Amino acid sequence: MQNNEFECTNSAIEVNREQALHAHELNHRMATEARKAAIDSANVAIRSLFLLNGGAVVVLLAFISALRSGSNGATTNLNLVTAPILWFAWGAACSVATSLLAYFVNRIDSEILTASRYIWEHPFVLEDTSSKGLKLWRGGLYSLALLLTILSLTMFFLGVYGITGAISQL
């Protein structure tokens, strides 16, 4: 009878171990896929904001050059176009700052993920309590990055609004 109990105990330990390994692998895979998706989408959004604002600056500078070289170039008041250029330039700067913050958020995410402890009993993956400070920093940097993203987009629309008014007055 004792031999049978020993086999049941070993069998239960082996099942528990297999479940733990599966949970560890699943947690690791999900974290990796989630991070990759978040990084990819953030990169696309940040690049788009930079291209929108930076492209607008380039287009406006080409527009100013065309106005200056035209027949009315000397009499055209280009002061109307300077404010929209500044809005677009600040929007591009905000998108660059967002990119930098996204880098720091990703680095902190890596630190938080590596702070997880894998154990052999249920729930198999434990969060390390030492990562609480990192999570606070991550939350702050993430919030700041979102704010800069919204500012960058707002500055683009302010620039569009400003250039529309400027062109109608030229």
Overall description:
The protein has helices at about 1-70, 80-115, 130-170; strands at about 115-120, 125. With about 170 residues, it is mainly alpha-helical. Strands 1-2 form a two-stranded antiparallel sheet. A hairpin with a 6-residue loop joins strand 1 (about 115-120) and strand 2. The protein is rod-shaped and about 105 Å long. The N and C termini lie far apart (about 100 Å). The model has no long low-confidence stretch (mean pLDDT about 85).
The secondary structure category is mainly alpha
Proportion of residues in helical segments: over 70%
**Strands, count:** 2
Shape: rod-shaped
Element order: H for helix, E for strand = HHEEH
Distance, first to last CA: 99 Å
Number of helical regions: 3
Largest sheet entry: 2 strands, antiparallel
Strand content: under 5%
- List unreliable stretches of 5+ residues: none
The whole-angstrom Rg is 28 Å
Report the mean per-residue pLDDT as an integer. 85
User: How are the strands ordered across the major sheet?
Assistant: 1-2
